[in-house]
């Protein structure tokens, strides 16, 4: 499949906020949404949002994301369960053209954008000036980052980096190809330095719908042959030649009986 022709633009959002629920201090986050335009072949698609568990029930998550509970899938993370939320993603005229999924939120007293996006939407929301002030009782749109890709084998997952995450670990969880993750998140410099992950980064993961394919039969056969050869060399039998083995006396007598000498 040809690499998707996706544009990136940087949207710098500075967050001075510490969430008590996760004990993660987020000082600044660079968001690199997947850009789109009216000329894009893909204007809409289905995608996933990765929700980091904050103790909400599935019903509460469904309400905040404006989806049905059937669109939410559990993701086991050892001591807790996170969630994948399937949403319709579309190209919106926001910040020059961005893939967005919109939900709605009812503002409560003392709510701030940073509190809500971090504790409810895993830091994946964009703040738009046209949404106006955060006044209690007001219902406002929440613009959540999503993405679309060409082809049918992959689906984009919007994922927020957590403590102890590694790129290979994320690729195993979702699952995805490492190089595809690096290329889709070029704004963070992952191609040059894949080990430089920061908590709070919002990545777009091109998850393989059918999982990572196992090696082909021929590749597996070559692997086993290579393994056996290495084992032979390690055990000191690399020059072993069965034809050079010395025959036992019994074997020599048997051969002599089968092929007696001709008498002149």
TrEMBL record:
Q: Where is the composition biased (Basic and acidic residues)?
A: 237-248
InterPro entries, A to Z: CERK1/LYK3-like, LysM, LysM_dom_sf
GO MF annotation: an example: transmembrane receptor protein kinase activity
Stored CDD domains: LysM
Q: Gene3D superfamilies, from UniProt?
A: LysM domain
Localization, per the record, is: Cell membrane
Listed SUPFAM superfamilies:
LysM domain (SSF54106)
- Membrane topology category: Single-pass membrane protein
Q: For this UniProt record, give its keywords in alphabetical order, as a comma-separated list.
A: Cell membrane, Disulfide bond, Membrane, Signal, Transmembrane, Transmembrane helix
Report the residue ranges that make up the LysM domain in this protein.
157-205
Specify the signal sequence span: 1-20
The record's section on SMART domains has: LysM
Where is it chiefly localized? membrane
Q: Which segments carry the region annotation Disordered?
A: 234-264
Q: Which GO terms describe its biological process?
A: innate immune response
Q: Where does it sit, as one GO cellular component term?
A: plasma membrane
- Pfam families registered for this protein in UniProt: LysM (PF01476)
PANTHER family for this protein: CHITIN ELICITOR RECEPTOR KINASE 1-RELATED (PTHR46204), PROTEIN KINASE DOMAIN-CONTAINING PROTEIN (PTHR46204:SF8)
This one is known as LysM domain-containing protein
Taxonomic lineage per UniProt? Eukaryota, Viridiplantae, Streptophyta, Embryophyta, Tracheophyta
């Amino acid at each position: 499949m040809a690499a998707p022709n996706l544009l990136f633009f940087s949207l710098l959002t500075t967050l001075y906020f510490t969430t008590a629920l996760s004990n993660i201090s987020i000082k600044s986050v660079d968001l690199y949404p997947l850009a789109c335009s009216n000329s894009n072949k893909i204007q809409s698609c289905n995608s996933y949002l990765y929700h980091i568990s904050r103790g909400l029930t599935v019903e509460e998550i469904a309400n905040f994301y404006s989806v049905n509970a059937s669109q939410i899938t559990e993701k086991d993370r050892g001591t807790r369960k996170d969630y994948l939320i399937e949403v319709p993603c579309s190209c919106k005229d926001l910040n020059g053209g961005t893939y967005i999924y919109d939900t709605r939120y009812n503002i409560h007293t003392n709510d701030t954008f940073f509190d809500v996006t971090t504790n409810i939407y895993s830091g994946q929301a964009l703040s738009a000036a046209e949404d106006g002030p955060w006044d209690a009782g007001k219902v406002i749109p929440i613009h959540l980052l999503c993405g679309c890709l060409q082809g049918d084998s992959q689906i984009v997952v919007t994922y927020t980096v957590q403590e102890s995450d590694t790129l290979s670990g994320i690729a195993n969880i979702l699952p995805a190809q490492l190089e595809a993750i690096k290329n889709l998140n070029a704004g963070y410099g992952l191609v040059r330095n894949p080990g430089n992950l920061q908590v709070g980064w919002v990545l777009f993961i091109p998850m393989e719908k059918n999982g990572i394919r196992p090696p082909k039969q021929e590749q597996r056969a070559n692997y086993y042959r290579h393994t056996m050869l290495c084992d032979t060399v390690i055990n000191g039998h690399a020059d072993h030649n069965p034809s050079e083995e010395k025959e036992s006396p019994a074997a020599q007598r048997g051969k002599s009986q089968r092929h007696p000498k001709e008498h002149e």
